[in-house]
Amino acid sequence: MKYLIGIDGGGTKTRCIAANFEGKSFYETTGGPSNFLVFGLDQVSENLVNLLEDCIKNLKCEFEDLAFVVLGTAGAGRIEDAERLEHHFLDYANKKKAEIKNFKVVSDARIALEGAFSGRPGSILISGTGSIMFGKDANGEVHRVGGFGRFIGDEGSGYSIGRKGLAALSKFYDGRGKRTMLSELVSNQFGIEGGEKLINAVYKNNFDIASAAQQVINAANENDEVCKKIVGEETDELITHISAMKEKLKQKTMEVSFTGSIITTDNFLSRQLHKKIKEKFDDVKVIEPEHQSVMGAVLIAKSFIKNYK
């Protein structure tokens, strides 16, 4: 029996599913992280080989029975980066006597899109640490909106919200900005009090700026004027993502699924976003994902196998 392997690579763990050509899962396992930009090519390749060895051991098959392997992971949004991991992994696996014939690396957003709509046209809006939107049109073409990173993009993301919150906090400390309860929340959560500690946290101690987003959202929920303004600006940015994707997909009714803790958690921001979508669009429908991202990787493997039989 031949198997399709779908892998969802995360920053802390990696999920792997072995399925038949109809998409029925026969075995699932988990392993170490797969973000090669953080952990390096060798470590990630070793983790992937371990996952595949676990699959063939439990399925009682050989590597040659793995018809196609698809990995969706963070850091693979650019083709050159994805191909770099592909080539390195295949060389690494070959040296370990784990001969993989067909292996493809795609972005984690790509497998999330496929999983959410079972391969059908649709769109997925992602807002976690960063933000991006992907959509597939009726012709199967995939479109992207956003995803330009924290320096020039990532609007509506945890990083953008956290950065604006900390910027507002710095102004309050200086007397240049309005008072905000964010000062109390950041002090209680992170032990940051005053401008000097804020500077040290951000520029010396590598403070996770995106982690401050939740405090901004919490303050907005308590009617904090400064934080409500930030949430309003960031949800407006996500609305522009949706508007741009509508123009690209040209669907009568565009279905969108949410991914990422900022907008999938029931909070002040996500409620505001849902409200704005209903007010602005009568042809956009927010739906729950039909499948998890790892199954999206299996579906992509299924589409590739037609060209590699």
Summarize the structure.
Helix content is 50%, strand content 19%. The chain has helices spanning 36-39, 41-59, 79-95, 108-117, 149-152, 158-174, 182-190, 194-203, 213-221, 225-249, 261-264, 268-280, 293-305; strands spanning 3-9, 14-19, 25-31, 66-73, 103-107, 122-127, 131-136, 142-146, 254-259, 284-287.
Write structural notes for this entry.
There is one protein chain. The chain folds into two domains: 3-118 and 292-305, ATPase, nucleotide binding domain (Nucleotidyltransferase, domain 5, 2-Layer Sandwich), CATH 3.30.420; 123-287, ATPase, nucleotide binding domain (Nucleotidyltransferase, domain 5). 50% of the residues lie in helices and 19% in strands. The chain is built from 13 helices and ten strands. A hairpin with a 5-residue loop joins strand 2 and strand 3 (25-31). Helix 2 (41-59) crosses helix 3 and helix 4 (108-117) packs across helix 13. The two termini are 14 Å apart.
Order of helices and strands: EEEHHEHEHEEEHHHHHHEHHEH
Radius of gyration: 21 Å
Enumerate the strands of the largest sheet in spatial order, edge to edge or round the barrel.
Answer: 3-2-1-4-5
Mean pLDDT: 90
Instruction: Characterize the largest beta sheet: strand count, sense, and whether it forms a barrel.
Output: 5 strands, mixed
Taking pLDDT < 50 over at least 5 consecutive residues as the criterion, the unreliable ranges are none
What is the CATH C level class of the largest domain, in words? Alpha Beta
Structurally, the number of domains stands at 2
The helix count comes to 13
From the coordinates shown, what is the CATH architecture of the largest domain?
2-Layer Sandwich
Structural class: alpha/beta
